[in-house]
Please model this.
Amino acid sequence: MLDIRAGIMRADMQKEDALKIRLEGVSKTFRSRGREVNALGNVDIEIKQSEFVSLVGPSGCGKSTVLNLVAGLLAPSTGTVYYDGEEVQGLNGRVGYMTQKDTLLPWRTAEDNVALPLELHCRGVSRAERNERVADIINLVGLRGFEKHYPAELSGGMRKRLGLARTLIYEPETLLMDEPFGALDAQLKLLMHDQLQTLTQQRKMTVVFVTHDLAEAVALSDRVLVFSARPGRIRAMREVPISRPRDVFTVRFTEAFSRLNEELWNELKDEVVKGTDV
Amino acid sequence: MANTTAVVKPGRTIRLDDGLSPLARWVTSGVGLTLTRLAILVCVLGAWELASGRLLSKYWLSSPSAIGRTLWRWAEDGSLWSHLGATLSEMTIGYVLGCLAGIGVGLLLGFMPNLYRVVIPFFGGLYCLPKVALAPLFVIFLGIDLGSKVALVGITVFFLILYSTLDGINDIDRDLIQSLRLMGATKSEISRKVLIPGCLRWVFTGMRIAVRYAFTAAILGEVIASNRGIGYLIEANAGQFDSTGVFAGVLVLVFCSLTLSELLTRWEASRGGSAGGFGPGS
Model:
């Protein structure tokens, strides 16, 4: 029965030729020390090819869980996660995942860390091309001059940017980002927004972006999903009525931006209060 | 009483010799320190020499001059060098074999978590066993020559290195491995790029500690049963109640371990804070 349904769905999607990621009736319950924690309620999410979607919501509402499900690091308790119309089972190698915690290798210098994805057999990039691309991307994230430094010698913000460079360098078709810019100061954040937008637009990447920062979500996304407090459900969903690419530096002063920001904040506010009560 | 509480300004090094007289300072630093130490040594040896045969029995405690003569005799007839060579080669061969096996088995178990789960209690049991207890067994198997000592050194070193390799692998952040898998790394790429470099620092630490254990194991093996080596020299002289020979042998050991310690300390210092660690931060 399920197989047939999946088959029909795959056919449907090929017709539409647009859905990249689809979560259908997905929930996730964690068990730890005999206690059950229902992290993610029953959610349905559809994300189109080349779409930039942000997930916002209070702490612990299952936003990161959604990313882990799409990456195949976790299996859903109920429901199904589809990627390109196929059920995600095991690790999903087609996504680049920038986790909240940096996973840089401490014994490699900045440039060697960034080069890592290109060293892997499955990419088969020549040394010359590798060096060139590493130099480009390090420049892009503003870390020129720090190529030979080890992660322990870099600040938190620099490590985030290094992690971003490592994720972007192999140009995965889909980017999963878990609060990638949390540790950056405001100006640097804007610069990174600009670069992220340019890159993802150029390469038509699909992006799922988790953040606490509502303004960041609105400035970057095609669509913003507001999650409720645990167990996470989708409380509101809004399209951002501003065409991309945008000028990330000035977009926040536009009428449309502030209206949507306020509207989403009203949705989010109650949930944040609920979230802190728990 | 109130001013016994010292107010230490931040950044100021507290020197324990603050307030010492100039003489005391000379005696505890620089050339004065070396001379002071020499003086102590000369006094102790001189007192020993004078007391020997008068206050102390020459038979039990020998005398520095007799020990010196014995050492000189050994050095002249070459026996000192052949015994020293025997001990050092047992130690070196055992150490190298133990390290290779320890790293090899450690990585194998690290890469195969299921195998690890099955066999680790056996290794744990043997690890706790004082290895000296196996020495008689090695003598039965391998005789009193080089082989039994190499085996004792080897097995001592093996367990030290095995456990430091395993600790190293356990210490590696699982998220690093997961992030590489998401990038599409194969199992062998994960081994080469994460597991091996990640546990290297631990392996080096284990290897450094193991040098001293290897030395002890070689000497112990010789004392138990052998026909060559410094340990044999001590044991053979003790068997003849020749305290002078025993003291001479011990003196050779003191020199050996001092040299070994000094070499290790220099090596560690030359590696500095950055080689094993990753930049000054760690």
